[in-house]
Amino acid sequence: MYFLSGWPRRLLCPLRSSERPFLIEPSAQRFYLAVLSETQISIWFSRPSVLIVSYIESGKAAAQFGFYQLVEWKPDDSMIAVTAANGYVLLFDIIGGSDEKCLYEPVYPKGARVKVTPGYKEEQCAPALTLEMKKPIDLEAPISCLQTLQEDLLVATADGYLHMLHWDSVSNGRRAVNLCTIPFSLDLQSSRGGPCLDLDGVHIREMEYCATLDGFAVVFNDGRLGFITPTANRLATDQLQGVWAADVSDGTCVAVNNKYRLMAFGCASGSVLVYMIDSSTGSMQLSHKLELTPKHYPDIWNKTGAVKMVRWSPDCSVVMVTWDCGGLSLWSVFGAHLICTLGEDFSCHSDGTKKEPLKISSMSWGVEGYHLWVICSTDGAEGDEKLQQTGILQFQFIKSALTVNPCTSNQEQVLLHGEDRLYLTCGDPTQAHSVSDKSPSRDSGSPVHRPSASTPLSQGLSTLLGHKHWQVVQIHSTYLETNWPIRFAAIDWSGQCVAVAGRRGFAHYSLYTRKWKLFGNVTQEQNMTVTGGLTWWDDFVVVACYNFIDRQEELRLYVRTSNLDNVFASVTKLQADTLLLNVFRNVVILFRADCSICLYSIERRHDSPNPSVSVELLQEVSMSRYIPHPGLVVSVTLTSVRTETGITLKAPQQACSAESILLNLAGQLIMLQRDRSGPQVREKDTPANQTKLLPFCPPVVLAQCVENVWTTCRSNRKKRHLMEALWLSCGEAGMKVWLPLFPRDHRKPHSFLSRRIMLPFHINIYPLTVLFEDALFPFCTVERTSQIYLHHILRQLLVRNLGEQALMLAQSCATLPYFPHVLELMVHVVLEEEATSREPIPDPLLPTVAKFVTEFPLFLQTIVHCARKTEYALWNYLFAAVGNPKDLFEECLMAQDLDTAASYLIILQNMEVPAVSRQHATLLFNTALEQGKWDLCRHMIRFLKAIGSGESETPPSTPTTQEQSSTGGFEFFRNRSISLSQSADSIAGGKFNLQKALSVPSGPSSKGGERWCKDSDSAENLYIDMMLWRHARHLLEQVRLRDLGCFSAQLGFELIGWLCRERTRVARIDDFVAALKCLHKDFLWPFPVIPACSISSPLKNGRCRPVLSSRLLKSQSADSLLNSDMDTTPPQVTTANHSWLDSLGAVSKELDSASSHGGPQTHEAFLSPLINKGEECSIGSATDLTETSSMVDGDWTMVDENFSTLSLSQSELEHISMELANKGPHKSQVQLRYLLHVFMEAGCLEWCVVIGLILRDAGVIKQVVGFLDSPEVPAETVQSIRAGLKAVDLWASSDCLGYKPFLNLIGPQLLKLLEVPVEQVQAEAFQPTGASKLSDPPLLLPRAEELTAAHPLPSDGPAGASARPLDDTPPQPEEQEPLEEGSYDCTLS
What we know:
Layout: E1 2-4, E2 9-17, E3 23-26, E4 32-36, E5 40-45, E6 50-56, H1 59-65, E7 68-73, E8 79-84, E9 88-96, E10 102-104, H2 120-124, E11 126-127, E12 129-133, E13 137-138, E14 143-148, E15 152-157, E16 161-166, E17 175-178, E18 184-185, E19 204-210, E20 215-220, E21 225-230, E22 240-244, E23 251-257, E24 262-267, E25 272-277, E26 284-290, E27 307-312, E28 318-323, E29 326-332, E30 337-340, E31 360-365, E32 371-376, E33 388-400, E34 415-417, E35 421-424, H3 440-444, H4 457-464, E36 471-474, H5 477-483, E37 488-491, E38 497-501, E39 507-510, E40 515-517, H6 522-526, E41 528-537, E42 540-547, E43 552-559, E44 569-573, E45 578-584, E46 587-592, E47 596-605, E48 612-622, E49 633-639, E50 660-665, E51 668-673, E52 700-703, E53 708-710, H7 720-723, E54 726-729, E55 735-740, E56 756-761, E57 776-780, E58 784-788, H8 790-799, H9 803-812, H10 819-835, H11 846-853, H12 859-868, H13 875-882, H14 885-894, H15 898-911, H16 914-931, H17 934-948, E59 978-979, H18 994-998, H19 1019-1037, H20 1041-1051, H21 1055-1061, ...
Parallel strand pairs: 18-22, 59-60
Antiparallel strand pairs: 1-33, 2-33, 3-4, 4-5, 5-6, 7-8, 8-9, 9-12, 9-13, 10-11, 14-15, 15-16, 16-17, 19-20, 20-21, 21-22, 23-24, 24-25, 25-26, 27-28, 28-29, 29-30, 31-32, 32-33, 33-34, 34-35, 35-36, 37-38, 38-39, 39-40, 41-42, 42-43, 43-44, 45-46, 46-47, 47-48, 49-50, 50-51, 51-52, 53-54, ...
Helix pairs in contact: 8-9, 8-10, 10-11, 10-12, 12-15, 14-15, 15-16, 16-17, 17-19, 21-29, 22-30, 29-30, 30-31
Region (Disordered): 431-457, 1345-1389
Subcellular location: Membrane
Pfam families: Beta-prop_RIC1_2nd (PF25440), RIC1 (PF07064)
């Protein structure tokens, strides 16, 4: 098909003239174009597009003859006829110059290919021509139209006569026919012998001769349309008869299509009527109309004016139309609309008025249809008196290779060719190179990946369609300048090799090497011309050509990998001229000028050193009985498609042999099948070389108005419906597919069921190929696209009650990535048609389609996606067919498909009352909470609030960004760390205040909680809070602390406030051992193991240096080393007689003093006494992590340096490594620290003990025991902790000895719990009396103000979750915080 490419060129006439040209007419071969103005005739050459000669009439002759009006060429380009206004026909001889004389010659650089071919200059350079007028012929009446025949010139005059002149007017006089003597009727059968009196005073306005119909299509000046045909071979006065086109009286112009035997008549209404001649009655039958539709051109469709001109392309595949109001429009031969310039938005003049469309006075197609030459009409206001250069516009086109070389119709590639370039759809050749390329040097030098031979090509084609880029290949200039124009082009099956044929010879190109191959011997190139087309077979170019030396038609095969030379060609002589050629597997099919079809077999020969083939004639089939003219055959195809009764799913081998011939005869698709009615010989009974091919049955007509045919020579057992289908492109009628019907499960086929069915459907694109396995049409205009066709086929099968076939076809395609879209499209199209129909539908299809879609697991998604993309008014019709949306919602919940359920919720919100929506939303919300679908939970919260606040008319908009949760500590999933630093203002004076830590807000929402809507006491918020509380209670009861933390962080749940309220209820622990085990499992935390050497471990015996051990336990973290002074001065170690507990004893004293002296500085707390002169250090909060670099090798080298300084023993290193091995994942440690902080804030001391146990953090246990002194702690809590620790001790003694060292370490705390309450107050009794003289670690951390500026905290966050002052938080949990995998940075508010 034809597509506009680029901007039109403007060709300026070198001669200045005051006359404007108004007519352009091409010669028979279109190499020359005659341009006519009032007293001047100019001859232009097509390539280069230059003016050759201009003949200007003298003033005296112009006065005698009148102005020029029409022009016509003699078929051999030797003469030209011009009509003048006073009734004269002026004949001009065109005389060529000598061989040496050319107007324009190309100039070549030195070293260019030498041209040795005879006649080169005449073919390639613009020749020098002269015009000589012969004796004028006076017809004594104004001339209305002019038409050339082979040796005659037919002239119609305004007095109602047809004059037949001989081109050589001297030797033969003229004959005239009066129109009134020609009998006209509606068909030739009822034609009467008498004259037609209706034509009195009527003359022919325009006419054109159709060679294949052997007659004239005529338009009379009263607007009637007719067809005049001679009854005998020669035109004579008494041997003409005519037929009318019924009920038409507004004809303006006409153009005929010789290949398809069509007559296109332009009408004053703006439409073009395309007629054909009925072969049985001879009457004119309307084939189709070409007209703009109000759907696509609402502003202009009825304002175009009359049709000005109609022009068929040289290959007869498209027709160009222009109107009085201007503009160009292109249609395919059977009415598919391709281009219309009237739909464009034209620019404006400087004064703001809109520019009119381009108005055209005349147009003509150039050579091979690559150009459209256009003469624009101008208004008289522009001042015609001044001399100026007139211009001709030249529109450039690219066209599908199928239009003239329909031999790639069994492939899945798209190839377009322009005047000097090719457009290919195939992707990068480095990704999809043909496996048949055997060149080892090419392979070794190529670094790209090449697919294996088993890779199906269509997999690559599916990916090709995703992009809209064309692979543009420039045709080799050396070949082009000698052999322009390109007449044929073909692409191979893999899409990697292209061949083109011009005037002489051919050339081919490999996309993989990006190189052209031309004939090395130019004489060989110039001694052949391609006549019947060219195509690819494996690595061979198959060419049907004419040999000028032997004057013989030949079939040649050239191997691609060798040089392009006749030495490497396999040549087979043919008996007649070849018109068409095609390849099916190993068979070449030729259609010849004597209307016969020849089948040749091709076999690769292995006996010769060079790759070669042997070609043998298999069969000849004469078609002369069925084909009236060989030029009417558009394409010939060999295929495995057949209609026999034996077609079953068990017989895929039938797809391997060439079963049928398909002929496109002027748009009529004819099928010839093998005749199996005679006695059948089994294949194994006959030798391979004596197998006789079966004859063909008489032809059967499959379809009308066919433009293109596609089959495939591949087979696929899983997709036999598609692979054995026959595809037809039928112009405005859309697509047709001839689909095979298979019995299911190898059952016997029904006798009443036909073996194939023709399914028509409309598409919005013009297809250029069919991807059989991908169920797609690729397509091109300026921009490439593709369209799915599968839903059209499924729908047509369902309309015909062939649901079983539709199901088999759909299941074979269910693996396609866009299969859900196919189902959705089918539902949507049927719904739109039926629900918006004004007439009642007797047999609606939607229930059938709905039942069909339920067969697939995507049913629920398909229906809801279709509904969401359809207007609300159609929902009732849709759900009446597919089922109640409430039932579908519940099915989604049962299938755990929550996202689809959420879509159904929006449907319910619009179709049901708010109470129903709330009920279903609550169900979905609870399910989403249980499954941890946090995004969905957030949307559901907004949805429920919208229902309550009266916004239920519209669904809530989906937020685009994730809301930052107020308890950001669980956002470590985003690879950031927690930063809980506070400003100095938040640090309150006074001693440690337990009451403050345990005080909580009483309401569900804090005063500044902006997460919910402003009226936080509303019933909706309470309703939502109740569900959140219930879920949190459920999680805590099941000891799912990790899920509880995620739930709090993702949904902004006020965990601390809620825990405070639940402190004495669900936040209690009944079984400490079970809770401990659950935490180990939940956080993937290993149970501690006791090393074999631990019996004599110096750490166990208390002889280890406490600062050393505490610091090295933390040595995984880079910041512990950076923020200590270990790398500058070795620490002053305390005396060795202190126990492990001694190093921890001073901490509680620090708690009392830190806040009173605390400045804004914070630093990390170590497991060592932090004693200096003024005790001027403040302890950070529970999870006061600072940003550090991630763990890298450099951090470990620091540790190594310190090892050398500290000189550890082997047993100490073993113990330290065992301690590190007993820790869980770093992320789990961060999560546990955060939860410890939350439980400590909420005063849930039992949970603090359990987390302290799993972290084996003695400081936490000591701190909790210290808290038990407070009178506010209930006695039940004290008893629970005491009993729980006893239970853990018993369990550890029997089942988990790894906990025993730690339990021994916190032995004093356990004893303290068992003592009388009065003695528990003496916390200072456990502190060491002598303080160690440790050097004070430098405060390298940023100040709190800096941290707060870097991570601003919300000033009015929820009270329960707000940051606590530093003196409220335990210092210890920072001790063993390894920061391994990237830094973390989250603000906890």
